[in-house]
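[job 0417] fold request received: Retrograde regulation protein 2
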Amino acid sequence: MLCIVFGLSLLDRTNISAAYIAGLAEDLRLDIGSRYNIALLIFFVPYALFELPSNFIIRRLGARYWLGFLITSWGACVLGMGFVRSWQVLTVLRALLGTFEAGLFPGAIYIIGSWYRQYETAKRVSTFYMASLLSSGFGPIFAYALSLIRVGDGMYARGWRWIFIIEGTATIVAGLIAPFFLIEFPEKVKFLTVRQKHIATARVSLEKQSGNGEIEHPTFRQSLGMLLDWKIGVYSIQYFVAASSVYSLAFFQPIILRKGMGFSYALSQVLSSPPYMFAILASLLCAWLSDRIKLRYPILIFQSLTAVVGLLVILYARPPGVRYFGLFLATFGTQANVPGSLAYGQNQTARVQKRGVVAAAMISVGAAGGITGSTIFQSKDAPLYLPGMWATISMQLLYSIVTFCMSMYFKRMNRLADEGKKPCLEGVEGFRYAP
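[job 0417] inference complete; emitting structure tokens
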């Protein structure tokens, strides 16, 4: 169920690109100035602000009802987009969409981090994220089919409206049934005994648990204090790069295929899907390998450099087929490092209570990456989008450097702990980092 609702989340935040080339740009005059970029980036302002408060609420209130409320609310926002008549109203709805979507992704990562141990998380987080990417893969084809709907000869004869109406309705339905199918945190589930709940919480943390398995909830002040850990800043840089690259490709891939490579509207939508299918399979394989060899940084750096190669092929190759192959590499390299970076941050965090703060902080900064991804590709730079492409390439190189340096630091800390020169890491005896 987490995969389904996150898939809807990705679909609902990026379907504006499909609507753009289906007539939205002409009807609302989004092609004037920076209107399209504004409509894209406004989503990420509340998205960044409400990540941490949502993860503060979710474990107290319970995942099922809190996430169900959020899903239904953002579905209503998407549905409303199908009836807008001005770009200003569209922008307001995009801001509300960001407000309600803010809690899902960090909440889901928090849930997964509460159930699985250090070298069990990469393939679980990757499965969760990549399964949801099926929506991104088939989203353009689905959007194209919806854009063919015509009702009468008035405003409902415009196909782009039906993209929002149908997809918004589907999300509302998912939000209403979500409380019956979403998983809870280990201490709140009904299908475990008290002893099993204690085992479930104890196995993911080396800290001593209370006899009754109760979870100590950090206060809001304690949560803010956890943010002072300098390592969270490094994880956030990693996720910023990963998110900005993913969003830039997601928002502008149909436009690059249409205007940059010269494919027709229908073919641009269809050709958007295969790179995502490749990314899913390759990413799951890399995540499995990362858990198997118990190393994170070689896989993360490999994926980052693959993205660099793909972007260079898109930028400088001449035949459309070769450039399209570059899109496969770029999509895999950028998408794979989103769950990879989140698993990396979770694995270096010993205390379960802190993992929710780490996930929320990373994804909040990732929202700033969304703002970057919304603005670095601008209409005036078509068809090559040279500034945006080189900005993305530079950030991917930064990702590789930061990941390597941080992992070498972690390896050194582990060695010192093994030699008894450092009594405990992260304040928890027996804990070791996962570089």
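[job 0417] notes: DSSP finds 18 helices and no strands in the chain. Confidence is low (pLDDT under 50) at residues 208-213.
[job 0417] exit 0
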